[in-house]
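In response to reviewer comment 3 from the previous cycle, which asked for concrete evidence that the modeling workflow produces usable outputs, we include below a single protein chain processed end to end. The sequence was submitted unchanged, and the resulting C-alpha cells are shown without manual editing.
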Amino acid sequence: MSDTLKFLYRQFFLTPSVTYPHQHNLEGQIGIVTGSNSGLGLESSRQLLSLRISRLILAVRDLSKGAKARRELTHAAPWAVIDVWQLDLSSYASVQAFAQRCDTLPKVNFAILNAGILKVEMQINESTGHEEVLQVNYLSTALLAILLLPILAKSGKISKAGRLTIVGSETAEWAKFQERTSKSILAAFNEPRYFDLQDRYYTSKLLEEFFITSLCQSVSRSKVVVNIVNPGFCYGSGLHNEVTGALGVVFGIYKRMIGRSTAIGARTLVNAAVVQGEQSHGRYLSDCAIGPFAPMVEEKGEEAVAMKLWSEMMAEFSFTDAERILERMRA
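The workflow returned the following C-alpha cells.
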C-alpha cells in the first residue's frame, strides 16, 4: 500500500479511542500543555480536565488568548486549578524562564509539547539567527523538552515516571530534508534555496523524530517516559492560518474533507501522555498505538545524520545546563 493510501486509510477508517475517567483518573496530578489556547492544545486540555486532573498549566504565547481559553475550560471544570503561563518558543529566554517557573511546582506528572508553526514565507529569528520554523518546531521544542526532564523526573520519586510527549506528524515521512548533506545542517535552513512552506514544516517534524531517538539514548525510562505522537491531519487546528487567499480557501476545503476534528486528534495526545506505559519510551505513536518512525530515521546510513544533528543542537544549547541535565537522566 502506498504512503498516500495508508494516510487516507488512517484518516477515514481509524478512529483513536477515547480515554475515560474510570480508566485513568488524574486527580492529584499536574500537567502542562503548550500551545493550549486553541486547536489540538485546547482540545487536549479539555479532555484532560474530563479525566479530573487537579491542576493544568496552559502554556501560551499570547496571554489574552490563554485567558480566554482558561475561562472556557474553567466553566466546564470548576474544580480544577487552571493557570495561564507565558511561553514564546521564538525566544530561548522565554523557554528558560518557563522551565524555571515549572521547577517551582511541587511536581509535574506530564507535559504535552504541542505548540508549532507553519510559515508561508521564510523568516529569520532576530534573537537566535535561525529560520523561524526550525527555531520553534525543533530547536526551542527540544530545549524545552530537555529542561523539563529533571522536573518531570521528580514525579517518578512520588508515583510513576513522568511523561513527556512531543506532538509530531506523519508528514515527517514526506520530508525531503535536502539540508542534511550540508556542512552545517542548522545553518543550511537559512538558505532560501531550501525553503518551501510545506517541506519546511515536514522537515521540522522529521527533526523531532531524530531528536526523540537520540534523546532517549540518554534518558532512562524509569525516570521519564518520552514519546512522540502523530494526531493525524486535523481541521480546526489553526496551523495553516497564514495560508490565505484562494489557496487558503482551497486548502480549507481540503482539510474539512480529509481532516479529523481536533477533538478526535486530541485523543491521541492524551493517550500518549497519560495512557501509554514504559513501552512507548523512545517510540512513535499513531492512532493510540506504537508505529514506525519515518523511513529516513530508521534507514541504515542515516546514523551519521542523527549524530550530526545532535552534535549541532547540543552546541547550540551550550549556554544552558542541557549537557549536565542529560548526564543526570541516565540510569
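Strands lie at 30-34, 55-60, 81-86, 110-113, 162-167, 224-230, 234-235, 260-261, 283-286, 289-291. We consider this sufficient to address the reviewer's concern, and the full set will be provided in the supplementary archive.
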